[in-house]
Amino acid sequence: MFKLTKKIPLEYDGICYFNNNYLLLKDNIIDFYDTNFNKIKEIKLDDNFKYITCDKKYIYLANDKEIYQYDFINLIKLDISLDIINIKYIDDFLIIITKDKIYSYKEKLKEYLNIKCSNILKINQKTLFIKNKEICDLENKIQSFSFKIKDCCYNDCLILLSDSIYIYNIDCYDKIAKLLKCLCKNDSILNSIACIEKALANILNEEANKIKKAICLSNNICDLIKINESVNQTIKNVILLEQVLCTKLDIYNNNK
Questions:
Q1: β partners of residue 122
Q2: What domain count does the chain have?
Q3: What one-character DSSP code corresponds to residue 234?
């Protein structure tokens, strides 16, 4: 789920992706890194900031109370005063996260009730995954990895920790988040389900590798058909076991 992308030389507070560069923020300095995370340049600002995000034209910087729009020449203060925890630019809106509410800002500030985006947003040392109008608290996920997430960059699913940047496989979110939540509860039934799910994921991965290797090595269509039938049978068996696990989980939930 997490793969180390880069150990960076300094500890940063925020990260965003702007015009094919990664921008990393620390106090009053923005460091520019290319896609291979080689440092290109830095920009010094007059004020200290804790949060950074951007659209295609502007960079947005924030401290605990104020938000500024930056075009590399002027810092323009927006008409916003909130107890800010983080900011993100999503779907043409500036999203402002406070301790108890989420707001959007385009022409004016309003509560962001109809969430139609997918992103990871930091709240203190937790993250919120926003997807299909649902907000899920993933504190357990972070604790299970002993990670304290500082910020994220959704463009390439990058997670900023203290002095490291990780890739987060966002496509696996739904299954993995449930699985990790089970592991964190230290419940024997849920642990058993999670362990089997992990094993099934490894089996499916190996079956995919089997097909790739067969395509590369064999020129005989009959051999490829046999491999396909073998993989197909394995998938059927996995589906049957998934149904059993689903029933097991339903029984557990009904008996809580």
A1: 127
A2: 2
A3: H
Cα torsion 212, 218, 224, 227: sign: negative
> CB within 8 A of 34, min separation 6: which ones?
20, 21, 22, 40
Domain housing 222: 187-255
Dihedral sign for Cα 166, 169, 172, 173, please: positive
> Residue ranges of the chain with pLDDT lower than 50?
1, 114-120, 123-126, 129-146, 170-186
Model pLDDT for residues 205-244, shown as the tens digit of each residue: 888 888 888 887 777 778 788 888 888 888 888 888 888 8
Short-list 190, 91, 92, 78, CA closest to 140: 190
Burial class of residue 97, CB neighbours in 10 A (0-12, 13-18, 19+): buried
138 in a domain, yes or no?
yes
- If one counts every other C-beta atom within 10 angstroms of the C-beta of residue 9, the result is 9
Residue 182 lies in a domain: no
> What is the per-residue pLDDT across 44-64, written as a single tens digit (0 to 9) for each?
999 999 999 998 899 999 999
